[in-house]
């Protein structure tokens, strides 16, 4: 696959993601206006808008001329970072919000708030210390944009560790809550001869373990990629 084919496939993929994000953003805005549960829809609006920023900047990076100016590079990389931070923080907030909805206790609420604040604080240095640069390849007559991850690598790593901890915490709490719900269901159905131990709570428990497994693979791959740059 040559350079132009790679650019074409990348543009198609990124453009598709942008159209999906735009569609979801429109739906989220509509639901925000008509539904009472506005907070979750607000998170969806922020998530989809951030996704548009992120993939829009990626599209812009791939579609820039062979010789890119530093101002273009800075603008695109800052947009990408803002979008990336927005996506990751809103995903964390949405996960903690769902946990609060399932188990709405005062102690649980404050734990979720503290975890979200820590994650948000760790995201800010990624914006503050963002120092993109241009890299020249004279033999190819090419100047490309480099995000220069070294300037905020530590904060990105710390933020991902907090995200992973939040995933583990939410999964553990949901398993506890769902196991308790399973026991309650078993007690209610104790007068039935044939008991079915597989309830909807069991399915949700398995789903959370699967989600944690996928998230673990994702974080491990990002860690490897982050420290191999």
Automatic annotation (TrEMBL):
Keywords: Membrane, Transmembrane, Transmembrane helix. The chain crosses the membrane at residues 12-33, 45-62, 74-97, 109-129, 154-178, 199-224. This is G-protein coupled receptors family 1 profile domain-containing protein. It comes from Glomus cerebriforme. The lineage of its organism: Eukaryota, Fungi, Fungi incertae sedis, Mucoromycota, Glomeromycotina.
């Amino acid at each position: 696959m040559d350079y132009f084919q790679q650019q074409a496939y990348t543009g198609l993929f990124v453009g598709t993601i942008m159209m999906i994000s735009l569609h979801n953003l429109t739906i989220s805005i509509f639901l925000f206006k008509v539904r009472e549960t506005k907070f979750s829809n607000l998170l969806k609006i922020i998530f989809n808008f951030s996704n548009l920023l992120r993939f829009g900047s990626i599209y812009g990076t791939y579609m820039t001329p062979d010789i890119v100016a530093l101002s273009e590079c800075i603008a695109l990389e800052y947009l990408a970072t803002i979008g990336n931070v927005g996506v990751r923080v809103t995903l964390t907030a949405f996960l903690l919000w769902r946990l609060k909805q399932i188990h709405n206790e005062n102690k649980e609420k404050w734990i979720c708030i503290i975890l979200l604040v820590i994650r948000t604080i760790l995201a800010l240095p990624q914006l503050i210390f963002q120092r993109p640069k241009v890299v020249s390849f004279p033999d190819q007559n090419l100047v490309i944009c480099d995000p220069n991850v070294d300037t905020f690598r530590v904060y990105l790593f710390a933020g991902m560790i907090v995200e992973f901890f939040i995933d583990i915490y939410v999964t553990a709490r949901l398993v506890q809550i769902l196991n308790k719900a399973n026991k309650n269901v078993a007690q209610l159905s104790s007068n039935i001869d044939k008991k079915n131990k597989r309830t909807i709570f069991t399915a949700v428990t398995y789903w959370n373990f699967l989600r944690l497994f996928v998230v673990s693979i994702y974080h491990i791959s990002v860690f490897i990629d982050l420290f191999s740059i």
